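Escalation from tier 1.

The customer reports that the assembly of two entities below gives different structure tokens on two consecutive runs. Tier 1 could not reproduce it. I'm attaching the input and our single run for tier 2 to review.
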Amino acid sequence: MKNNLLPLGTRDEFGRRAVAKQKIISVIQRHLNQRGFSVISTPLLEKQEVFDQYQLGNYQMYRFLDSEGDTIVLRPDMTLPIARFLSSTNIPLPQKFFYVGDIFRISRRLSGSYNQLTQAGIELIGYDSMKAELECLMIINQLSQELLKKNVEIELGIADFAPTLLEFLTTDKELQNQIAQALYDKNIPEYSKLIQQYSDLPQYKLLKKWPRLFGDPTTVFDELNNFDLSFELQSKISDLKEIIAWIKRVMPEQKVSVDLSSRAPQSYYTGLTFRGFYQDGNDYLFSGGRYDKLLANFQDQTEPAVGMGIDVDMIADLTIPANKSKKTMIYFDKDQWQEAEAKLKELPNSVLSLSETKNEAEVEAKNSNATLLDLTGDDRLE
Amino acid sequence: MNENRIKIALTKGRVEKQVVPLLEKAGINCDQIRQKKRRLIFDSPVQPYEFILAKGPDVTTFLERGAADIGIVGSDILVEHRSTQYELLDLKTGDCQFVLASTKNFDPDEPKRKIIGTKYPNITKKYFDRLGQDVEIIKIEGSVELAPLTGLADAIVDITETGTTIKENNLKIYDYLDKVSTRLVVNRMSLKQHSKEIYALVDKLEGAIKDENLSKEY
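Tier 1 run:
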């Protein structure tokens, strides 16, 4: 067996991709430090029970046994470890955290997906106020400008919109579940079959429209005006409207849409959800929401919280420059080191050549497709 | 420039033959596909669609990775490959059904751990899970009927349109599983990025399917 092969679904990162990722991470860190967030770093390894609440979707977790025989996993998510951390320490709340790190999810074999992903994110713990959601939206707006030079589209949703609406429709939990699944998966043939039994009800029109209840907020809300919604749903919708009005006021150029037909990004979300996507990317770049009950998995007391993940790999895919300007390689004698250092500072995208002779330096420059700047003789190449 | 072009991955072969007339009925120009020769990718200058031709399982891979916006593929493949994308339309063509079949002396109730040959291990497992039976599954790539005839397996789970191949090989159907038909599937992100264009296509196709079924009835 060859000893220099990588496990399936992993990769080494170097060159343009590594540089792009490093830049993205430093922009995110600088931004969040400036906002006064505290950095937090949790281990890659956690006990499996930490993720009992986590919906894996189409993924598996990497699992090991430790010396005690307990099952240990490589973390597939960053939020649950932070909830575990808070419940086991006496950190006074509220707190604003941010993190950057790798998560591990085993995707389908040979599907072209990577199993190690870099994620950044924030968790605002102990904040009941809608201001917590608003700060997240502000961060999406500003970070997407800083990272992509363009705004992403923000998509807002309500985690329990579908469950609440379905509770009014039927008391049969199994049926509620089936309808919700078909709706979330937009499995329209299955969904149409399931709602057929309500064709005599006044809500049937809404049920039929439901899978398409996403997009421009005004259009979606106009659509909803035709229906008699429960008080509970109406108050959720009016929160959503308030947030959209705030966005229009505070960041008028921000594109915003709503989606009342999709599954929340994770089952632990309880309130408003928000995601950001870009016209070119093939997944969401930002994804988060309110999860007021999450800490209850680890302790008796619940804490209001809002969090958001940022897909660093996806942003890297979108920002890797197509071709970079040529590098300059500085060749010099040891006693010219200070002069060389000055050049290094002066020239963007330059590097010191450590070759002993000029011939070697020429070969080195050629191999890395760089222009050679020779500080040793008269024949200086500019 | 490609922002509003929709990439459609069409399963080549039988699905392609059945779906092209339907697409044409919905007003989509398919001349390039009809005159394709050996080409696999068609970017039309007259409409916002680019077609690619691929094998069914690959259509799901293209969709999962966002390399195609829309896929046209059999529901057998969607279920077997556990597609997580949006299934917006049943095209009501390519109708067939999964069956459990075997030789005439097969006893489905015999108390033993059965050996089942199939091209669809996930669907087979799901079916026997529902029956509360644990079976040994052997993955077979084609001519699945051979498995019980040669003694490789006790029975097979396979897809059949009319049951002819099964009968001609002296096999008998013991149970009917899920029905299968061709579906239009959309990548989750694409539906958000191109919802207008995609729904316009879906609605046109839905109209064409309704007309088709009405004319079948009369």
